[in-house]
């Protein structure tokens, strides 16, 4: 376990993106600087931070948006992390090899070191979210990283709906689960289902915080791209699942101070890890349990 400070300030910039990757990088750098000036120590950017959400359709030209890790974006943000002495979670479209691409996040420590990469494990496929066309499922597993300011885990968007990913990341010692996200409403669904969809999205992640006795921080984008209206509302929840802070619908930096001492206290009173029946969970690795 890392020797992290007792309290750490976490920031989630949410913002609109444009077609120009360099402009989006500049926006991210501006917001990271603002967050650092306000005392942020760990900053998580939104899913696919420097591109439009190109998964609205299937277009092979969009593969040109991908870049290697390390690559231009991560190198630039490594320098920024070192300058500001902040930890950065940088989600981007990763080009691993010709024809092999991932929806990934680079984890950068406060000295600029690239600690590792998380590759999105669960890949959705829905109208307006054509992700299986672009992304190979992750193959690096669920893990956490020791940073200067705490041990953090990263999952991405659709991973939010799966308790298994949260549990395995927490079992690797994550004190905070970060969920960079690009989720929004389709116009034909918003009136009837919009509030229910948002409630489900937030509730399931708050449940991960409770079940694992850790903090959860979800960073979502804002603005309308194609027919998708991204709903923003980035938030940070404590180990009781209480929302500490929540964003709105526009550009802003969502920020809260987390207290790692609360993790110890919460897990003493609610010892879910102690009482797990690991001898009885074998069937969880099956696609479906036949009766």
Note down, in words, how this protein is organized.
- This protein is of the alpha/beta class and 291 residues long.
- Helices cover 25% and strands 29% of the residues.
- It has a single domain, classed as Nitrilase/N-carbamoyl-D-aminoacid amidohydrolase.
- It contains five helices and 15 strands.
- A six-stranded mixed beta sheet has the order 5-4-3-2-1-15. It has a six-stranded mixed beta sheet with strand order 6-7-8-10-13-14, covered by helices on one side.
- The radius of gyration is 18 Å and the shape is globular.
Offer a few descriptive terms:
globular, 25% helix, 6-stranded mixed β-sheet, 15 strands, 5 helices, alpha/beta, 291 residues
**CATH architecture descriptor:** 4-Layer Sandwich
The CATH topology comes to: Nitrilase/N-carbamoyl-D-aminoacid amidohydrolase
CATH class: Alpha Beta
Share of β-strand residues: 25-35%
CATH homologous group name: Carbon-nitrogen hydrolase
Question: What's the gist of this structure?
Answer:
This protein is of the alpha/beta class.
Q: What's the arrangement of secondary structure elements?
A:
Blueprint: E1 7-14, H1 21-37, E2 42-44, H2 72-84, E3 87-97, E4 100-108, E5 114-119, E6 144-147, E7 150-154, H3 163-171, E8 176-181, E9 184-185, H4 187-212, E10 215-220, E11 222-225, E12 228-231, E13 235-237, E14 243-246, E15 252-259, H5 261-269
Parallel strand pairs: 1-2, 2-3, 7-8, 8-10
Antiparallel strand pairs: 1-15, 3-4, 4-5, 6-7, 9-12, 10-13, 11-12, 13-14
Helix pairs in contact: 1-2, 3-4
């Amino acid at each position: 376990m890392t020797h992290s400070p007792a309290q750490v300030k976490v920031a989630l910039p949410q913002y609109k993106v444009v077609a120009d990757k360099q402009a989006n990088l500049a926006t991210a750098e501006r917001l990271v600087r603002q967050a650092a000036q306000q005392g942020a120590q760990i900053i998580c950017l939104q899913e696919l931070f420097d591109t439009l959400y190109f998964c609205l359709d299937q277009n092979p030209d969009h593969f040109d948006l991908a870049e290697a890790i390390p690559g231009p974006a991560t190198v630039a943000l490594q320098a920024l992390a070192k300058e500001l002495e902040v930890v950065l979670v940088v989600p981007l479209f990763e080009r691993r090899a010709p024809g092999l691409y991932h929806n990934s996040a680079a984890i950068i420590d406060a000295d600029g070191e690239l600690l590792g990469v998380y590759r999105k494990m669960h890949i959705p496929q829905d109208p307006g979210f054509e992700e299986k066309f672009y992304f190979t499922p992750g193959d690096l597993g669920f893990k956490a990283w020791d940073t200067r300011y705490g041990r953090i885990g990263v999952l991405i968007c659709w991973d939010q709906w799966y308790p298994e990913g949260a549990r395995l990341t927490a079992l690797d010692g994550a004190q905070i689960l970060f969920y960079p996200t690009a989720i929004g409403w389709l116009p034909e669904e918003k009136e009837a289902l919009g509030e229910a969809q948002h409630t489900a999205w937030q509730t399931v992640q708050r449940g991960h915080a409770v079940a694992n006795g850790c903090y959860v921080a979800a960073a979502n984008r804002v603005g309308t791209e194609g027919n998708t209206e991204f709903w923003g509302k980035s938030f940070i929840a404590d180990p009781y699942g209480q929302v500490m802070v929540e964003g709105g619908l526009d550009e802003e930096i969502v920020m809260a101070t987390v207290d790692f001492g609360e993790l110890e206290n919460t897990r003493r009173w609610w010892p879910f890890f102690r009482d797990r029946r690991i001898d009885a969970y074998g069937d969880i690795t099956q696609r479906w349990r036949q009766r």
